[in-house]
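Okay, is this right?
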Amino acid sequence: MNTIKRIGLGCFIMMFAAQLFAQMPQFNLVENGDFTKGKAGWETKGKIVKLKEGKEATDGDPALMIELDKKKEQTFSQLFKIPKGVGFIKIRFQVRTSDDFEMASSQPMEVTMWGGNAHFDALVHHEKLERSTEWQERWVSTDATTEKVGIQVTLKPGKGKVYFDNFVSEIKAN
């Protein structure tokens, strides 16, 4: 009897795990979120730079660098397909600034997702982006109500550089 219960419980756990993994694709929906393929997948005028120990270097990890303009906004974006069965998507990413970073606005960075009812991380949307050479994690999320979802980052006029890296998607099934 004990053996039968253990076999039954083991089968139940395996079926539950199989169903969970079948509903949740185990890949990043954001193309080239780590910028190892340059700007592939991104619409941007930014540059890909290598960073090492918080500084630009030739032998470090790649990141997207946006050099701020004193008069014009800077943007970059990506549109991606949502697999069937996905009901919610969250994009996490990292951001940091140069030592000479200054913003002319009290609302220096907006992160927008479209293709659903967007919910913004309060630390990103309409909040002051503080000067920091340390990576800070930020996120934005939305209900996945369409076949395609886009993310756009808009930086208001200012001085200095802002670096972005490691855009990763997290999804939940319907």
